Amino acid sequence: MSTYAWIGLGNMGGPMTANLVAAGHTVRGYDLDAEACKAAATGGVQIAGSIAEAMDQADAVFTMLPKGEHVRSVYEADDGIWANATNHMLLADSSTVDIETSRAIHAGSQERGLNFIDAPVSGGISGAAAGTLAFMLGGAPELMERATEFIAPMSGKTIVAGGPSMGIAAKICNNMMLFIDLMASAEGSQLAEALGLDPEVFWQIASVSSGRSWAQQTWYPVPGIIDTAAANNNFEATFRTDLARKDIGLALDAGQSTGVQLPAASLAREHFDELISQGLGDKDCSLIVKNLLPDGVVRGWNPKETESAPSAAS
Ligand code: NAD
């Protein structure tokens, strides 16, 4: 059995650590948010008062934080991860961050003789709870076997993407493809309906034809077609628009630094920015369907219901 230090016990870190505890490991967690700590403690995580306390005698140190700036700050702080790490520990960042941050943490760790991998995930909150997340790993080959063992209780599939920052590169490209596919489902669903197709019949046709995609199968933005769609639930978030905006922005930044043109990703960013400018950043990203109709009135979306409901933001 191993001892894990875990920094960031939010929507993803909470259920991921619960699975480590359920597998018999010791987890010492640290988070700035008292509610997140409380929830993680009910899953069996021992709450630490500092990063140093969480890392004391740890075998592995995971970060699951919102953005690159948070990851940098916990690594670089005077009493942060670098200050407390030893070369016996495996350091892993599972947050979705920008390439530059990931490279900087790899370089800083290497300079200090420490073992760092990037280990982002796909599968969302439900995959975190079920222990079926897909992990994509980037780093030195000799770290991968040990990393895969640490990850096993949280993962349905772990794939070594390549050297340093290749895990995060895969994650950014994957999510960019997802949001472009989401635009296709949004546009296809509305045009089909406007042309008089029965929505259920059209979805069945696309499912066995070339319009099929993960977004079409899981997030189809029309109510009453598939259970997992936010359209059934007034577009309460399964994947928040502001997080989708963050991820598409990471892809566009990478496109700019590499010179690759990403016009479809730019369009996706416009969709998300439009929703955010309307104060809908905490709603599901599939609400982009609303941008397609001249009056913004779309089946499944009732803004009044949202105004009277308790805030879904977390
Ligand atoms: P979240 O906001 O629910 O959790 C992040 C936690 O980090 C919060 O509890 C916050 O208090 C804590 N935190 C922030 N700064 C901190 C600091 N300096 N020290 C300690 N704790 C700190 O976010 P989440 O949904 O758990 O996502 C985490 C990461 O995983 C993000 O990068 C996200 O893009 C990525 N991700 C999320 C999903 C998803 O479906 N939610 C899926 C795949 C990947």
UniProtKB/TrEMBL annotation:
Domain 6-phosphogluconate dehydrogenase NADP-binding: from-to ranges: 4-160
Pathway(s) it belongs to: Amino-acid degradation
InterPro entries, per the entry: 6-PGluconate_DH-like_C_sf, 6PGD_dom2, 6PGDH_NADP-bd, HIBADH, HIBADH-like_NADP-bd, HIBADH-related, NAD(P)-bd_dom_sf
Native source species: Glutamicibacter arilaitensis
PANTHER family referenced in this protein's UniProt entry, alphabetically: 3-HYDROXYISOBUTYRATE DEHYDROGENASE, MITOCHONDRIAL, 3-HYDROXYISOBUTYRATE DEHYDROGENASE-RELATED
The name this protein goes by in its record: 3-hydroxyisobutyrate dehydrogenase
A Pfam family this chain is assigned to: NAD_binding_2
Keyword Ligase applies: no
3-hydroxyisobutyrate dehydrogenase-like NAD-binding domain mapped to chain residues: 167-290
Organism superkingdom: Bacteria
GO molecular function: 3-hydroxyisobutyrate dehydrogenase activity; NAD binding; NADP binding
Family listed: Belongs to the HIBADH-related family.
Catalytic residues, chain numbering: 171
A GO biological process held by the record: branched-chain amino acid catabolic process
